[in-house]
Amino acid sequence: MVYHSPVSSLTDSASSADVLPLSFAASPVSQPSKVMMRKTLKNPISCSGIGLHCGQKVSMTLNPASAGTGVVFRRTDPAGQGAVIPADWSRARISQLCTTLADEATGATVGTVEHLLAALAAMGIDDILIDINGPEVPAMDGSSAPFVFLIECAGTVTLDAPRQAWKVLKPVVVEHNGSRASLIPGKGLVVDFEIDFAAEAIGRQSCTIVVTPASFKDSVMRARTFGLVDDLPKMRALGLGLGGSLDNAVVVNGAEILNEGGLRYPDEFVRHKALDAIGDLSLAGLPIIGHYSGYKSSHALNGALVQALLNDPTAVARIDLTEDDATAGHQFAELLRVSA
């Protein structure tokens, strides 16, 4: 795996302001952008379902939390030994198929966290305690949509603490076996993804999205995880995908989509990869302000990118997040660009 952190950085050029004659009316002086505040849930809310890989029935409760808690999982079953596991890159045990968080003291884990984390990040939830009585987040329908529904049903409240973020200062790139993931400076969080699969039903697809609650709900949250029929025997032999079905994944056989209802988006596959990236990037512990680009990237590569970013103090700065920082990505007009 190759890590790059180039010395050169991308900076916005600014021209000096013109001096107007006194007889001209100058434009109003712009006011400092308002610092955003942290958010949590208003009420607890629960769900249950089957773990995609473990195949076990799992119940989960999303609870309000105080400012500074962050996103934290708590195992409530005997096997979990009460482990409290922050959603932080240092706790991640990432594979090609999912992102798992681990507690080294007890050995307890919580797997396939990325779809829930993507929903929390996109909806702006900073502090939450997630009680879970099994080793994996329920798959639900394989997307983030059920978790967004839970968040909206629970409601949100603003906390009396400023929201902070990681601002990307210079390009950071990681590469492995022809795959690539990078972050460069920019306003807001923009996610750009490209995939290239041999399966005819998938092929080559790309998308770019400015991550906001509205764009996530409109264009990303319903995209489901997917798998290839040819890979299923190998996965099952490894004890993976034991809870997978046509109810919680898109299954592809060459040029054929086996799900009765077909696809939710024409390019659902790449949109789901963008969803995964949003969840993986949240392991930075704070929102990332910058432009992410992934080419055939994986959970493992996304995790390596977060690690490379935070391990280089010259590549990132911790800032109080302002509305301007969070929304200036609207230069992309919140439109999803697709080229299949």
Key descriptive features of the protein:
alpha+beta; lpxc deacetylase, domain 1; disordered N terminus; Ribosomal_Su5_D2-typ_SF; 5-stranded mixed sheet; 9-stranded mixed sheet; 340 residues
Descriptive account of the structure:
By secondary structure, this protein is an alpha+beta fold. The protein has a single domain, classed as lpxc deacetylase, domain 1 (2-Layer Sandwich), CATH 3.30.1700. The protein has seven helices and 22 strands. The strands form five sheets. Strands 1, 12, 13, 14, 15, 16, 20, 21 and 22 form a nine-stranded mixed β-sheet that branches. A hairpin with a 4-residue loop joins strand 7 and strand 8. Helix 5 runs parallel beside helix 6. The longest helix is centred in the C-terminal third of the chain and has 14 residues. The radius of gyration is 21 Å and the shape is globular. The two termini are 28 Å apart. Its EC number is 3.5.1.108. Catalyzes the hydrolysis of UDP-3-O-myristoyl-N-acetylglucosamine to form UDP-3-O-myristoylglucosamine and acetate, the committed step in lipid A biosynthesis. Belongs to the LpxC family. It comes from Insolitispirillum peregrinum. GO terms for molecular function: metal ion binding; UDP-3-O-acyl-N-acetylglucosamine deacetylase activity.
